[in-house]
Amino acid sequence: MSPIRLRIVVGLLLAVLATASFVASFGHLGSFALTVALSIATIKASLVLVFFMEVGKQSASFKLALAAGVLLLVTMLALVATDVSLRRGPSWANETTSPRRADDSSL
Amino acid sequence: MIVLPDLARHALGLPVEATPTAASVDSLHAAVITTTLVGTACVAAVTFVFVLRYRRTREAPAATPRIVASGFREWLTASAVLALFVGFWAVGYVQYTSIERPPSGTLVVYVTAKQWMWQFTYADGRSSEDVLVVRAGTPFELVMTSRDVIHSFFVPSFRIKQDTIPGRWVTLYVDAAAPGSYPIYCAEFCGVAHSHMLGEVRVLDEADYAVWEREATHDGYAARGREVAASHGCLSCHALDGQKRAGPSFAGLYGSRVPLDDGRVVIADEAYLTHSIVDPLADRVAGYPAMMPSYHGQLSAEETGALLELIRSLRDTLPTQGRVP
Amino acid sequence: MTALPIPPGAAHDERSFWTTATTIKSWLVTTDHKRIGILYFVATTSMLFLGGIFAIIIRLEHLTPGPTIVSAETYNRLFTLHGVIMVWLYMIPSIPAGFGNFLVPLQIGATEVAFPRLNLASFYVYVIGAAVVIGSLFAGGVDTGWTFYAPYSARTPATVLPTLIGIFIVGCSTILGGINFIVTIHTMRLRGLGWMRMPLFTWTIYATSIIQILATPVLGIALTVIGLDHTFDWGLFDPARGGDPVLLQHLFWFYSHPAVYIMILPAMGVVSEVIPTFAHKNPYSYRAIVYSTLGIAFVGFLTWGHHMFVAGISRFDAAAFGLLSMLVAIFSAIKVFTWVGTLFRGSIELAVPLLYVFSFFFLFTFGGMTGVAVATMSLDVHWHDTYFVVAHFHFIMVGATFTAFLSAIHYWFPKVTGRLYARKPALVGWALVTLGFLVTFTPQFLLGNGGMPRRYYDDPVGFSVLHVISTMGSWLLTLGMFVVLGVIVHGVARGAKAGPNPWHSRSFEWRTASPPPKRNFVGPIDFNIGAYAYDVADEP
Amino acid sequence: MSADSDHFESVAQRAQAVRLALGVFLASETLLFTAILALVVGYRATWPEAFAFGVHHNTKVLGSINTVVLLTSSTSLAVALEMLRTGRRRVATALTLFTAACGVAFLAIKITEYEHHFAEGIYPGGRGAFFVAHPIAGLPAFWTLYFLATGFHGVHVLAGVGAVGYRAIRMPDATEIHRFEATALYWHFVDLVWLFLWPLFYLA
Asked: Which of A10, B222, C222, D45, CA to CA, is 20 to 30 A from B297?
């Protein structure tokens, strides 16, 4: 397949995936909705990275730079999410519906 | 648990520790500061010895042997020091959780920080400003919030500190405090009079605490307000603990932003409250049925004042519908 | 691919980069990395003195517990701008942009940085940013502390926006500079100069640039959101509209903790250059310093939560951040052990740069260990936002980075100016700076232990004696700084001529003339003898 | 080229430097959007029902059209790069102009979305009739973050349109293709960011 045709096919694939996640969003998936949408987005992102940005053919330091950015993205989101979701209110607040209800895990 | 000798505590400038937790924190403090002094002294001493021993004598610098440390020894020293630091972290974590998380069921005192003063509300509805009165030897839980910006409740003698964040309840646990008077500082910058936001924890022994408890304080007026509300049927529609009944709850109402049914948003201050008592349908709260009768002419000024004091005294009670106080 | 037509046997200019063109215009539009380094050095040092003036007034205010010379509003603006100017206009750019610009191409055998015009652009972006920050002084200044915590930063009557814009612009300059250095070090090294043969100062500038380009954007977002909250009332951190001020602290400290490593790593680079030269010995373990530098650069991104132990974060995060902070402290400990080990069986000459490095040793070790103490969670509950923390970070920023900055000035003085400074007055300057520092900041540890909170205009009862000692110490430190300034000015004007390598150093920047020609090296460059090969008798 | 090109030993080294500079710049931009996503994650965990309500009320169709617009623009730019490599400069220029046009279309749709929100009474900071009609705790945070994230992304699209437009006019010659690659890398990155903003604010 010639590089031009490859790129067009990847473009079509991206459009298909976009419509797929658009349709999926109307389904009542509840808590899974976000995971489905984000995983499709990750697939599309890797398609763009590999075929359009040709990250495979870039130099090692280029890949290292992007990897550092993505690694810090994941770390920061993880630490902020664990902070916000695991905060506990006063000892008696957890019985009543206080604005910051947190599951009563040991930590 | 090694208790910091008085001389060392005084030399470090630490205030007298007033709670058992403070004493255990001080012992960790002693361990860490000793390691710091010893570590620094070792580095200085070794450097001094090397400088003396290997000083350049001749003008032209002689070639020096090429010495490269063995990887193993590097890892050994690094992991030994890391183990020591992780030890500090572990002890620190255990003490941190005991300061931050009170066992449920302990005596609760509400703390509300506002720009440049502290307000303490006790379990029985009584409140006092800038002075927190506690019985010696009984642990208590501080449930704290802030009315405006971030402040920080800091009692050096208890070695405790916790930022009070508006819109959230944060806690501190103080186990049995020794009698005495301990300063309270605000430790998070909060504006022009940040350095004037001082308070005092007065820990009274049994006798003095009993005397203090019997004194009538200004919140007796709020109790009077409760009688007026009961006798005039207010409590049948307005709950005091935040539950939603036919009418909005008085809990956390005073000073909050109230959305009205015609789209306006008003602050629940004395003017709004008195006007609503006299003419309830003028500013109807969004989402509530229009069924409150007018009390025009049925309440004397003293009774209306008592009702207002009741509502004012409930402004810090926890709202249960997620509405921010 | 066709090679660029390098002019055969280009008549490399023999004269130094100072004298090739001496018009003002030649300096203002220069793309010579050495001149840009000097422009940065002059700009950042003037910011140091401006920030220092605020520090002196703050210390004078504490001479008496009550109001002394300024009002509360002015005091709050003074400590805020002292923080903003010192952190963003002096500490972060001074060594990386000043000395880094001058030395990195020399140390890797390149004639220029990768993008010289981008280099000049980042200097002018810095100047514009600094001008906006100083301009905000006249717009009433900002009184929120350099941390800009919400909701106070959203509600303060003071004009917050100009200062935020100024810091944002300086942040852009840092990112541009960071990109330039990373690409230079990756692509412009001399053929055959492997990563593990590069001088250690270049390694620290490389690690600093990585932190700069990865951390500064998050500061950009934090500043933008604070500006939107204050000026357009977006209320993203207004609790009444569901805002959570602690999230802003997460954003701010995600930048600001790596920022303190931006400040200390170049200083460590200076120390790693000065000790081998004056001990005339190879570093005890080149590998350990390189890996701990990279370790600090990456683990430094994971420890920001130790600034928020009492801010109301979850216990899981408090535990995680505490543990990671202990891990990052180990890399500094490894460096100190390696530096001390380098002195073993060396041939030590007690030159002034080495004396500053010994001050660095003592103050950095003590400051660093108090850092471990403050990272211990239960102790931080007592110490947070008290003068103990103020003393800790001044021990690192002034005690370590500033002494390393002075050591760098004296060490590379001959390379930059081709002259030698006068040793005796420089010794007096060193003694005054070190003593003045100790008298100023050691009492603050005791103030912190006593519970004296930070940013207090009026001192609570019982702390005045320590405050007076600290204020007198600040006078001594200021005197020391002026003595050093005098030594430098005298040295530039009438210092004795210095040869290309007065300290007999093996490091690569000393393999060319002092001051170096415009294109750095004349003729073929020979780096076969290593940068730390002191076991070789003859000089390269 | 100007003075600074002769200190590189070869064009290959210069191309290598430009590409690495882009990689480093994109890592830096990743952290810029990481900061915004951290706020989104923080508030989503605090007010899940407000975010669900906000997503439900967002202009999903217009957002999805925008996604397709950006994807096609990325595809056309990638094909344009391939055309340039094989020497067909006229087709490359046309495709690059098409990409810039898609960028402008994206911004136009974005502005219509904003107008739609303003008409509905949704303004940043939780002001407007919409919030009085739906007094859900945390809803102002959703919409303020929506304006912050899509605003920052919009600015990057605007810068991208400028860069791609400039490249279309000043199409580099055979030895300078790395300049076109740099612009393409930046544009694909801006598309990548939208691929993650779209689900967070429109789909789930």
From this structure: B222
Q: Distance between CA B225 and CA B228 in Å, rounded?
A: 5
- Cβ neighbours of residue A94 closer than 8 Å, sequence gap 6 or more: A88, A101, A102, A104
DSSP label at residue B103:
P
What was the pLDDT predicted at B325?
A: 36
From the list D19, D67, D199, the residue facing A62 with the nearest CB is D19
Instruction: Give the pLDDT score at D91.
Output: 93
| Touching partners of C (3+ C-beta pairs < 8 Å) | A, B, D
Does C535 map to a domain?
no
Nearest CA in chain C to A103: C314
Cβ atoms of B35 and C385 closer than 8 Å: no
How many Cβ pairs within 8 Å bridge chains A and C? 50
Size of interface A-B (CB pairs under 8 A): 38
Beta-carbon separation of D5 and C4 below 8 A? yes
Per the domain annotation, does D1 fall within a domain? no
Does any CB of chain A come closer than 8 Å to the CB of residue C240?
no
Give Dmax over CA atoms of chain B in angstroms: 106
Q: D3 in a domain, yes or no?
A: no
Tell me the mean pLDDT in the region C156-175: 94
- B140-146 vs B107-114, strand pairing mode: parallel
Residue D61 sits at the chain B interface (C-beta within 8 Å): no
Name which of A83, A92, A104 to mutate to probe chain B: the one with the most chain B Cβ atoms within 10 A of its Cβ.
Answer: A92
In chain B, where the domains are located: 6-57+67-100, 107-214, 220-313
Give the mean pLDDT of chain D. 92
What residues in A contact C210, CB-CB < 8 Å?
A: 68
Whether the complex's predicted ipTM surpasses the cut of 0.85:
yes
Residue D2 lies in a domain: no
Q: Which domain holds residue C330?
A: 34-511
A47 close contact with C: CB closer than 8 A: no
D184 contacts A52? CB cut-off 8 A:
yes
Residue D69 is part of which domain span? Answer: 8-203
Smallest CA–CA distance from D176 into chain C, residue: C1
CA dihedral B80, C383, B178, B119 (to 10 degrees): -150
pLDDT in tens, B224-279: 777 778 778 788 888 887 777 788 888 888 888 888 888 888 888 777 887 788 77
DSSP of C61-92: HTTSSS--SS-HHHHHHHHHHHHHIIIIIIIH
Q: Architecture of B220-313 per CATH? A: Orthogonal Bundle (1.10)
Look up the CATH number of the domain holding residue D15: 1.20.120.80
Percent over 70 (pLDDT), chain D: 97
Distance to chain D for A97, nearest Cα, Å: 13
User: Cβ contacts (< 8 Å) between A75 and chain C: which residues?
Assistant: 301-302
D45 to A81: CB separation less than 8 angstroms, yes or no: yes
Contact C282, B66 (CB under 8 A): yes
Structure-block tokens of residue B135 = 């019985």
Q: What is the mean pLDDT of residues B177-201?
A: 92
pLDDT of C258 reads: 96
- How many distinct structural domains can be found in chain C? 1
CA distance A33 to C110: 54
Strand partners of residue B128: B120
Tally of domains within chain D: 1
Domain boundaries defined on chain A? 1-53, 58-87
CATH 1.10.287 fits B6-57+67-100, yes or no: yes
Structure letter (DSSP) for residue C304: G
**A 64-103 residues inside an 8 A Cβ radius of C:** 65, 68-69, 72, 75-76, 79-80, 82-88, 102
Neighboring chain D residues of B322 at a CB cutoff of 8 Å: 137
Question: Could you say which residues from 180 to 209 on chain B have a Cβ atom under 8 Å away from some Cβ of chain C?
Answer: 183, 185-196, 198
Say which CATH number the domain at C376 has. 1.20.210.10
The pLDDT tens digits of the residues spanning C393-423 come to 999 999 999 999 999 999 999 999 999 999 9
Strand pairing of B140-146 and B151-155?
A: unpaired
